Predict the 3D structure of the following.
Amino acid sequence: MIHNGTNILDNLTSITLAKLLGAFFYYHPKNRQINSLIEGLLQVNQLANWPNQSLMDEQCQVLKDQINHPEIEYQFSLLFEGQGSMIAPPWGSVYLDQDKLLMGESQERYRAFLQHQGLTLNTGMNEPEDQFGLMLMAYAILLEKHQFQAAKQLLTEHLLSWAPAYLNSLKQNQISLFYQALAIIAEQYLQML
């Protein structure tokens, strides 16, 4: 991506990071679909020229220390699936819509945007498309298809308007050190974009 005329991340790195982070924000770390991605996540500090390399090194160490935590699936469930009250709901409409509900107007606008781009997200689950991890994966798909203007539009109109508040809440969670670290890494990635 280009930022102020300077190449911050090359296209392939941006795609890789969006897919990798998106997967871990969407699937729990014991899910067989992302087993092959764990090594990449644990070495995410080596995938880009991060502005704050020491922070990234620290967060990768936290991920390594926490990936096999005996309650990591439960932590994921609390933070992403909604058991009880969610301290950091991962859906954009909760942050953007006046009533703070799922499936609100912002989600409908995002769904229309995806349809206009020819993207249908079929996860096999009946859920809103404006989930943070799904949005990162959609961003990666647009980059892969060389739909750079649409990728930029996804970021500016649909993701960056609420992602900082979401990631800040997730960073402050008292449930999981793993997801605190993941939020910090995602925040650094979005800042680089």
Notes: The CA atoms of residues 74 and 193 lie 31 Å apart. DSSP finds ten helices and two strands in the chain.
